[in-house]
Amino acid sequence: MTYSGKVVIVTGASSGIGAATAELFAKQDANIRAKVVLVGRNEANLTATEAACKAANSSAELLIIKADITLDADRIINTAIEKFGKLDVLVNNAGILAGGNILDIDVEQFDQIMHFQYTFVPILSLNVAPYFLKTDP
Ligand SMILES: NC(=O)c1ccc[n+]([C@@H]2O[C@H](COP(=O)([O-])OP(=O)(O)OC[C@H]3O[C@@H](n4cnc5c(N)ncnc54)[C@H](OP(=O)(O)O)[C@@H]3O)[C@@H](O)[C@H]2O)c1
Predict the structure, then answer these.
(1) Which is the closest atom of ligand 1 to the Cα of 46?
(2) Along the chain (137 residues), what's the average pLDDT of each consecutive run of 10 residues?
(3) Phi/psi at 11 (5° precision)
(4) What ligand 1 atom has the least distance to the C-alpha of 11?
(5) Which stretch of DSSP H or E encloses residue 7?
(6) Helix, strand, coil % (nearest 5) of the chain?
(7) Is residue 18 within 6 Å of ligand 1 at its C-beta?
(8) Could you give the domains of the chain?
(9) For residue 120, what pLDDT is reported?
(10) What pTM does this model have?
(11) 54 closest CA partner among 33, 68, 72
């Protein structure tokens, strides 16, 4: 399967798995411009991911959206549509990681992680889905 020419949103593109994923999409095909939307709250890190994507494929079209997915789902989608006119892929990767011993679990932190995963992650998917259907009914 090729993602060439597809418009891909990667949330949590400012570090770790999301940054590596964005870079992989950017270098899919040097002949057809990959279009990758980099979403996260840390602008400096997003800029570093943008540079890594450009290094991987200088013709990649990149859009940084500094945004919090718990607050800015509509803005993320509208800004991406304004720039690229369509959406094909959402890598809904942003998340909260917690380490440590399960016996020391902090209930408030557990609640925050679950709320993020079961509310804001699906909300973004639900808001993006109609644009996917427009692109590929
Ligand atoms: N690494 C693992 O072993 C592992 C295991 C299981 C699941 N996961 C999941 O895989 C995903 C990526 O993990 P990772 O290891 O790459 O972790 P990471 O480096 O901590 O990345 C998390 C990303 O989520 C973004 N993020 C967090 N809250 C956000 C918010 N409210 N709005 C927008 N972006 C937000 C962060 O960006 P900003 O800080 O810039 O906003 C960051 O880029 C996470 O969802 C994590 O839960 C990872």
Answers:
(1) 40
(2) 83 98 86 86 98 93 97 98 96 92 87 96 97 87
(3) -90, 150
(4) 34
(5) strand 7-11
(6) 50, 15, 35
(7) yes
(8) 7-135 (3.40.50.720)
(9) 97
(10) 0.95
(11) 33
